[in-house]
Amino acid sequence: MAAEVEDRAKKVFGDHYDKAVAFTALLTEHGVERGLIGPREVDRLWERHILNSAVVAELLPQGARVVDVGSGAGLPGIPLAIARPDLDLTLLEPMARRVAWLTECVEALDLDVTVVRGRAEEPPVRDQLSDSDVVTARAVAPLERLTRWCLPLLRPGGRLVALKGESAAEELERDAEAVRRAGGIRPRVTTCGGEVLELPTTVVLVERDEQASRREGARRRRKVR
């Protein structure tokens, strides 16, 4: 690791820097063979993946209940858990082999993190993980689908934090009506990590409308009856 990147990583992870190094080493050694990252990503793990994920921590309230949807290789969930051990964090992933990977990483790094196998749109998952403060997602789906899947996991006023690329503003404009129908309000694009990344992380933020939350709760109660 270049000295410049090391300095930036220490700034982001602080006292937990060694765990970030250990997680990066695990991805470097096993990520390609286990289908978690592409071969070209190994040499740019820190800048493009680890730090890109961890800087999103600046958007998360202290002690927030966070669900990382479609966690996959553990991005952004594991870097967030390392940088912010105060978070009550759940990694949600549908694929068994990736759930196994996430479980191994959590145990190896001694993280206080829950790993759940499932999809955000499944009723049992919604029952288990509803009323979360924040849902994160990185390279999971377009906003139209992402808000439909993820917003029901949030408490009223909770926030979806979707890590996106440079075309985030175009995607938000394209899917604005679908976001509104899903119960999303105040959608906007922001960036994170400008002080430590050459290319800051682009994020779409969407809050869950309180009225939509009440309608969802009413539907659940009717089903129970």
From TrEMBL:
EC number(s) given by UniProt: 2.1.1.-
Amino-acid positions noted as binding S-adenosyl-L-methionine in the UniProt annotation, renumbered to this chain: G70, L75, A120, E121, R138
UniProt-recorded Gene Ontology molecular function terms: rRNA (guanine-N7-)-methyltransferase activity
Cellular component terms (Gene Ontology): cytosol
Stated family: Belongs to the methyltransferase superfamily. RNA methyltransferase RsmG family.
Keyword S-adenosyl-L-methionine: yes
Assigned keywords, A-Z: Cytoplasm, Methyltransferase, rRNA processing, S-adenosyl-L-methionine, Transferase
Keyword Cytoplasm in annotation: yes
Lineage summary: Bacteria, Bacillati, Actinomycetota, Actinomycetes, Pseudonocardiales
Class of this enzyme: transferase
Subcellular location(s) per record: Cytoplasm
Pfam assignment, any one: GidB
UniProt protein name: Ribosomal RNA small subunit methyltransferase G
Function: Specifically methylates the N7 position of a guanine in 16S rRNA.
